[in-house]
Structure formats: structure tokens, C-alpha cells
Amino acid sequence: MKKSSVVIAGGGSTFTPGIVLMLLEHLERFPIRQIKFYDNDAKRQELIGKACEILLQERAPEIAFSYTTDPEEAFTDVDFVMAHIRVGKYAMREQDEKIPMRYNVLGQETCGPGGIAYGMRSIGPIIEIIDFMEKYSPDAWMLNYSNPAAIVAEGTRRLRPTSRIINICDMPVGIEDRMAGILGLKSRKEMQVKYYGLNHFGWWSDIRDQAGHDLMPRLKEHVAKHGYIVRPEAEQVTEPSWNDTFAKAKDVYAVEPDTLPNTYLKYYLFPDYIVKHTDPNHTRANEVMEHREKNVFAAARDVIEQGTAKDCRFTADDHASYIVDLADAIASNTKARMLLIVENGGAIENFDPTAMVEIPCIVGSNGYEKVCIGKIPQFQKGLMEQQVSVEKLVVEAWISGSYQKLWQALTLSKTVPSASVAKQILDDLIVANKGYWPELK
Ligand SMILES: NC(=O)c1ccc[n+]([C@@H]2O[C@H](COP(=O)([O-])OP(=O)(O)OC[C@H]3O[C@@H](n4cnc5c(N)ncnc54)[C@H](O)[C@@H]3O)[C@@H](O)[C@H]2O)c1
Ligand SMILES: O=P(O)(O)OC[C@H]1O[C@H](O[C@H]2[C@H](O)[C@@H](O)[C@@H](O)O[C@@H]2CO)[C@H](O)[C@@H](O)[C@@H]1O
Ligand SMILES: [Mn+2]
């Protein structure tokens, strides 16, 4: 079996050690000869790089390993680019979340004005990474987690339409794990799902077991009472803010009980509730800096100080397993059915063919084939048309440097109450994002 070479772009990410652990766990089915890290922040990447160097040396010394900020070194001789960059890092995520709250509008990493601001920062650097890949390893595939995936995907569709990039999200598989828990199944992989929507904006319309039995009725009964909380009677181990999100799915489901919702729909259907329950001075970015970032970097420091990764506290979850499954599906032509963010092209019959939608695809060595969804209901179609227009306007604004288009994008977002509030938020975001956004005229 051919051994693959992988570069992780955003080497200093909190998710990098998890991906390394997952790659090591799956060497039998997805053999690796080389792992490289690439980041534009040498200092941040060095800690994760040094710790992973020790881990790899102990667990798989045959795998060549290096980390660098030099694009030529990073992108030469690779088969897969696994990208998860955060342009502006947590400091800018904090701004994205706090600025809209000044106007009682929700502040979120990928939804509403925060997601729009993040999108405007991310398009350029993602295109730069695609160009590095195509220059130094033209046959490679880029598997992209970098958010906001919906806007990034539309940006790549417009600016690099023939590039070998696949955009993905781990939220549906995270929810599917919970569904499997609710149903008492061993793994989400025992379910075959039909799902459609935009990224962080979708619905399950059909879920069956391997024998073809409909699992939706049992799931609906549970979600109607408990949302996606698997065992409501037990103590919850998930962070409280995520726990609230999984519980709130109960209310999101009540609005449209024919399907099961992605948790992110709460931001669009209950924005007033979100604003009311958000501390404008301490948002999710603060929580992540105080917990995940602190813990991952402390774990890396421990490995470096002790000179061994024997008892290291790195962990891997769905995020890691999903991207490794995707790489494996391409490398080994597994024809796995996976949710990907792809150009609609008629897969959702009554929806814009140029929209980037999240739907099941069959993945193999030639890339992916889309599963046909057919017609979607009016409620979902209406919401998606509004949201996809926001995403398209953001990309249009980035390409043409248009203040007007970005103002329209913010105005059209279901999370923003009026054009005047949209303008005030936009003007604050322009100041905060100086140096990251193209100049708008
Ligand atoms: N698609 C999904 O479902 C999903 C799931 C989880 C995380 N994510 C995304 O993964 C990314 C990483 O998340 P995190 O919380 O670990 O962030 P993080 O800040 O810990 O890591 C991001 C890394 O990207 C680097 N970076 C920023 N700009 C860069 C550039 N232009 N070139 C190279 N490197 C660059 C930073 O220096 C940093 O080390 C984010 O975009 C996040 O939104 C996506
Ligand atoms: O607030 P954060 O940074 O903790 O999470 C934001 C991301 O949330 C989703 O990813 C989750 C995933 O669903 C869960 O299973 C686990 O792997 O953690 C991830 C990150 O915490 C979402 O899909 C991402 O797009 C968001 O960036
Ligand atoms: Mn996601």
C-alpha cells in the first residue's frame, strides 16, 4: 500500500496533536511516510511541533517529521494538506464575538456578523495555501476545516474553481455520535444518513440502521424532550456552553419537527435568546483560551519538559477521526459516504445550483460523487436562500472590495435586525480588522 505524506497547515492549532494521534492510530489502513506542520506563527507552532516530535519519535520513528514556516519546505512532496488555520487567532475571534454584542446582536465564531468578519479575514490566506499546494505538490488534495467553512468554500468556488480542495465540518458527525448514543448504537457509522443544508445550517431528513429500519421516530421522540443530551439524568461532562447548545436543539426541533436540526440553527432561529444568555464581556473565545488552548499548550510543555510523551494528555476526537477517514477514503478508494461541503449542481433540485451545500457524498480516489437529495421543503429552502445570499455577498465584497456588498450581507443576515444596526457593526468591524480585510470602497 502506498504511504502518504501529510502537511498540517495551522500546525500550531489546538487540534493538531489530536490529528497526529489519530493518524498514528490508523497507520494500518492509512499508512504514512511523512508528517509536516506549517504555520505562519513560528513561536506558537514550535511548542506543538516539539511535543509532537517527541511523541512521533517514541511511537512511530519511521515517519519523517518536521515543522516549518517556509511554504516551499512545507508543501513540497505532500499528498494531503490538512488545513485548520484560524486567521487572526483567538484575539480576533474575541472581537468577532464582542463587537456585535455592543448592538445587542449575537457574536459567534461562524454565524452572523462574527462569521462574516472571520470570512473576510480567511479567504485570502486559504487561497494562498491552495496556491502553495498547487505550486509545490500539484497532485495533492487539500482537506479543509478552516472556518468559516461556508464562506471559505464559496471563496474557493469563485476563486479556485478547479482546485483539489474539499471543505468539511465536524459538527454533523459530533451530533451523529450523540444520536448513536441516544439509540444505544456502538457507533454513528451504524447509521446511514440523509442530510442537507449549508455549513452550520442543515437538517437530517432520514436516518436508518444498516438493515434499513427508520431510526427517525425514536430520535425525534428523544430530541423533542431532551434535545441532543444523550443521558439527561446523568452528570454532563461536556462544557456548560456546549451542553446548553445540545439542550437547545429541543426548541430548534420544535420549529420544524419533520427533520432533525444542526445545533447551529439556534443562532438563526433564537438570536434574542442567545443575546440574552451571552455575557458581552466573556464570550466563547474567552472560554476556549481559558480551557482548550491552555490545556493543549500545557500538555505540550509537559511533554517537552519531561522529554517523553508516554503519559501525555493530548486527546483525539471526531474532529481528528473525520479528516483521517476522508484522507483514507481518497488514498484507499474506500467509497465511504461522508458529508462534504460541495457545489450544489442540482443535487438539491429546487436550490441555487451554484450554492456550496453540505450533503452526503461518496468519496474515492477520484474525489467525490454527490448523493442526490431531490426537492427540499419551503421552510428550509427559504432560510437557506437568505443565508446563502449572505455568504455569496461576503465573497463578492471581498473580491470587489465593496463596502456596499458587505453592508448588504450584514443586513441580510437573519441575526441582524436592521440596515442601520448592520452599518454600525460593519464600521466597528472595519476598524478591528484593519490589516486583515481588503480595503473597502
Ligand atoms: N470545520 C469544522 O467543523 C471545524 C471544527 C473545529 C475547528 N475548526 C477550525 O479549525 C481552525 C483551528 O481552530 P483552533 O481553535 O485550533 O485554532 P488555533 O488558533 O489554536 O489554531 C490555528 C492556527 O492557525 C495558524 N494560522 C493563522 N493564520 C495562518 C496562515 N495564514 N497560515 C498558516 N497558519 C495560520 C495560527 O497561527 C494557529 O497556530 C479554526 O479555523 C476553527 O474554526 C473547524
Ligand atoms: O467553540 P469551540 O472552538 O469549542 O468550537 C467551535 C467549533 O465547533 C464545532 O466543532 C466541534 C465539534 O463539533 C466537536 O465534536 C468537537 O470535535 O469539538 C469541535 C470544536 O470544539 C464546529 O463544527 C466547528 O466548525 C467550530 O469551529
Ligand atoms: Mn464546523
TrEMBL record:
Q: Where is this site: Increases basicity of active site Tyr?
A: 109
From which organism does this entry originate? Propionispora hippei DSM 15287
State the name under which the record lists this protein.
Maltose-6'-phosphate glucosidase
- What GO biological process, any one, is recorded here? carbohydrate metabolic process
Which free-text remark accompanies the cofactor? Binds 1 NAD(+) per subunit.
Against CDD domains, the record matches this protein to: GH4_GlvA_pagL_like (cd05298)
* Cofactor(s) this protein requires: NAD(+)
Instruction: Report residues binding substrate.
Output: 93, 147, 284
Any one GO molecular function term: metal ion binding
Q: Where on this chain does Mn(2+) bind? A: 169, 200
* Pfam families, A to Z: Glyco_hydro_4 (PF02056), Glyco_hydro_4C (PF11975)
Domain of life from the UniProt record: Bacteria
Family per similarity comment: Belongs to the glycosyl hydrolase 4 family.
Q: InterPro entries in the record, alphabetically?
A: GlycHydrolase_4_CS (IPR019802), Glyco_hydro_4 (IPR001088), Glyco_hydro_4_C (IPR022616), Lactate_DH/Glyco_Ohase_4_C (IPR015955), NAD(P)-bd_dom_sf (IPR036291)
Q: What Gene3D superfamilies does the record point to? A: Lactate dehydrogenase/glycoside hydrolase, family 4, C-terminal (3.90.110.10), NAD(P)-binding Rossmann-like Domain (3.40.50.720)
Q: Where is the Glycosyl hydrolase family 4 C-terminal domain?
A: 195-416
